[in-house]
Design goal:
Shape: globular
Distance between the termini: 18 Å
Number of helices: 9
Number of strands: 8
Order of helices and strands: HEHEHEHEHEHEHEHEH
Strand order of the largest sheet: 7-6-5-4-3-2-1-8
Helix content: 40-55%
Number of domains: 1
CATH superfamily: Alanine racemase
Mean pLDDT: 95
CATH class: Alpha Beta
Strand content: 15-25%
């Protein structure tokens, strides 16, 4: 895939996002498109950055380590996949945002590593709004019990909520998941204040629906880079 194809794909996504924002009365400038570079070469990732993407997301720390030095100019890097305990130190060193905080223990470990590194790590809480047992994330009913504690941890900057829509073509189920995530987000924002401002949901197959429920960060891979193995 060359730069022209990536740019054409990205422009198509931007057009669709702009159209949906207009329908929903959303400022287009308030929505961030995050390019998901799982299984994408550093060369292709660099082409996407040159085409205007300023945020890229990786699912695995190791792939990020191997790829990041070769992606120029450097974007803001998000970790969007599940973070294993033995990868926390490196993740806290190389990523700008960790979106997949799904337990108090994980948040505490990231906090410790961030303090050791002399930085303030931006993090999102992950909520399991689809109810699927295969997905990570706080249960919607109990996430509020942990948000304040995580927000007060040194070295952390809690700015958002992330969820994954259900793996289905049933639009009602997708909408139900996003509606629940939005209600959790609204309540968390009322608790945590204006610094908590990001609702990250929506992928290549459902990002337009996510915009209907207030998503302001869309994690899009296939629609930009084409289909890769196991990509959504």
């Amino acid at each position: 895939m060359d730069e022209g194809v990536i740019l054409a794909n990205l422009n198509e996504v931007r057009t669709r996002v702009g159209r949906r924002c207009q329908i929903n009365g959303i400022e287009r400038s308030s929505v961030t498109i995050l390019g998901v570079t799982k299984s994408v070469s550093a060369e292709m990732a660099s082409l996407a950055v040159k085409a205007g993407l300023t945020n890229l997301g990786e699912n695995k720390v190791q792939e990020g380590l191997e790829k990041m030095p070769f992606v120029k100019p450097r974007p803001r890097w998000h970790l969007i996949g599940h973070l294993q305990k033995n990868k926390i130190k490196r993740a806290a060193e190389i990523f700008d945002v960790i979106e997949s905080v799904d337990s108090l223990e994980l948040a505490g470990s990231i906090s410790n590593r961030a303090v050791e590194g002399g930085r303030r790590m931006e993090v999102y809480l992950q909520v399991n709004s689809s109810g699927e047992q295969t997905k990570h994330g706080f249960e919607p009913g109990i996430i509020f019990n942990y948000a304040d504690k995580i927000n007060e941890m040194p070295g952390l900057k809690l700015t958002g909520l992330m969820t994954l829509g259900p793996l289905t073509e049933d639009e009602d189920r997708i909408r139900g998941s996003f509606e629940l995530a939005k209600s959790v987000y609204d309540k968390l924002q009322s608790i945590l204040g204006s610094e908590f401002r990001i609702l990250s949901m929506g992928m290549s197959g459902d990002y337009e629906i996510a915009l209907d429920y207030g998503a302001n960060e869309l994690r899009i891979g296939t629609a930009i880079f084409g289909r890769r193995p196991t990509a959504r």
